[in-house]
Amino acid sequence: MRSAVAWRLLRHDRSATAGALLGVVAIVFLVGQQLSILFGLLQYMSVLVDHSGADVWITSATIRNVDAVNLIPGQYLERVMGLPEVAWAEPILLGNGLMRTADDSFEAVRLVGLRRPRLQGGPWALAQGRAQALLDLEGAAVDRLDLKKFAQPALGSITEINGVRVRLAAVTEGARAFQGTLVFLPLDKVRDMIQAPPGRYAAILVGLQPGMDQAASMARLRALLPECSVLTTAELSRRTQLYYLTSTGIGGSFGFSTTIAVLIGIVIITLTMYASVLQRTRDFAVMRALGGRRRDIAILVLCQAVIIAGIGIFLGLFFLAALLNATRGSDIPSFLPSLVPPLLAGITLLVSLLGSLVALRKALQADPASVFH
Amino acid sequence: MADLRLENIARDFSDGRQLRRVLFPTNLTFQPGELTVLAGPSGSGKTTLLSIIGLVLRPSEGRMWLAGQEVTGLADDVAAKMRLATYGFVFQQPMLIDGLNIQDNILLAVGIQGARIPGALRRRVGELLATLGLEDTARLQPQMISGGMKQRVSIARALIKDPAIILCDEPTSALDAENGQVVMGILKRIAVAEQRLVVVVSHDARVFPFADRLIKMENGTVVADTGAAAPAGQEEAL
Fold first, then answer.
1. Which of A92, B4, B66, B198 is a Cys-bridge partner for B191, taking CB atoms 3.0 to 4.6 Å apart?
2. Scanning every residue of chain A, which has its alpha carbon at the shortest distance from the alpha carbon of B47?
3. ipTM summary value
4. Does the beta-carbon distance from B97 to A283 stay under 8 Å?
5. Considering only CB atoms, which chain B residues are within 8 Å of A287?
6. Which residue ranges form the domains of chain B, and what is each CATH number?
7. What strands lie across the sheet with B165-169, from one edge to the other?
8. A373 alpha carbon, distance to own chain's centre
9. Contacting A residues, span 299-318, partner chain B, CB-CB under 8 Å
């Protein structure tokens, strides 16, 4: 009966209910949208690592992120390949360059050199062309969303990076990085472009034999290469994301805006529910006089908060899903891990209950004796 | 059947600086089967007395028994439970809750503590409404019926749980003469025919003819009581 009464009172007090709903929707939508951009940027930060297909990354010692690696000697490659748990090992070369655009301007790019024929760490999804196009020494691949930067070059068109001739051989999908525009190239071509010494690499990607104990394999690799950083793909990904989150102020900025969104939501919920309870003070006093206990009034108010939260969460997630759907494939970074919506719903429910506490306090003050005056 | 006995019941109110006595020590006994009217001018203490009898206000002094059980200093929840089980209230204003239809307003008096409402009780709502001349109003919202009808709905709300005691605070003050007579007639029938203890607070002389017992109050004291059982020292013919 109490939950039914709570629902009917909410339906009757439409403006107050709409206000409180707005608060909940604001929390879910604004926080969800902020988080989707944050996770989208996090994906950008570690996109190369996450899509490398490797189990282990070997880089120069004490690295802070995947973009700040010193070159390591190529003989480590042979050493690693000697271990029975290693299925394959491939070098990768990273560097910076200036790419001539189709309108004769220049654009800064992040070069990713891949060794042929395996092209490990290279494009994982293509919008145009084929990955094998990078087997061509002059072949280069850029992302679909970055074509505008390069003044929309046609597939097969010739251009240059750091004065070295390349041909746009493929267009990638979803290969965008936080640190710059990614261009995938054959490893030797990148070496020419950045003037890297022969036989040295930015990192060695390692694939372990299926069924191997990863912890034991990591221990053996670390013992074999004590002068290097030997990290699992997940470790390097986390380290890179954490570095950019803490060193660029992105984490603080998103944390601040998310906190503001939550606070605004709490204030809206608190004020509207309080106003609603104020209007109902006499009714709560009547309920108390009729035999309602304080806990019955509390259950009624909390039921209202839960109903508002439930509807608001549903609407907020619906609008958020619509936004994410609309921006999918655009150049707005957005990604929401599957764990986030239920977590967001749970937090919003807690925030809604928190916002109803002031109203609850007022409702519990309703004096049954006041109905006799 | 519940009888109600008050022994030296008094009540003080504080305005923050000093205590003010609004009800002086009062001894009264109420019996089922009679309609008692508490009369007196504004500020005479009749509503305070009704609130104490109704367990919504604690006395500052004295003791009170209901059906032989002392109910003077009951904990909040126990008092609420007793109100739910034993009392029916009719307030000065009908105090129906907007947003709940007539049926839900009546059933609230049973379900406020979360009890499931059996189908038989829903049927009883219909019967009560018919008895009170309110057929076909169960699904209406309170704002769709007149003031007199609302007050009759509040009587139905008081009766739905079949309470032993019915307390009414100026039930006719918001009604015209005709509706006031109808409401008092209903209350009289409930008291006498159904052997309930009915106490009505009113300063409206038109309700006095319905009283089996008339208690007159002034300045926080019972100055007259037609009831034969009134304690010595407070009894006075009106």
1. B198
2. A372
3. 0.86
4. yes
5. 97, 108, 112
6. 4-94+164-225 (3.40.50.300)
7. B87-90, B165-169, B197-201, B34-39, B213-218, B221-225
8. 60
9. 299
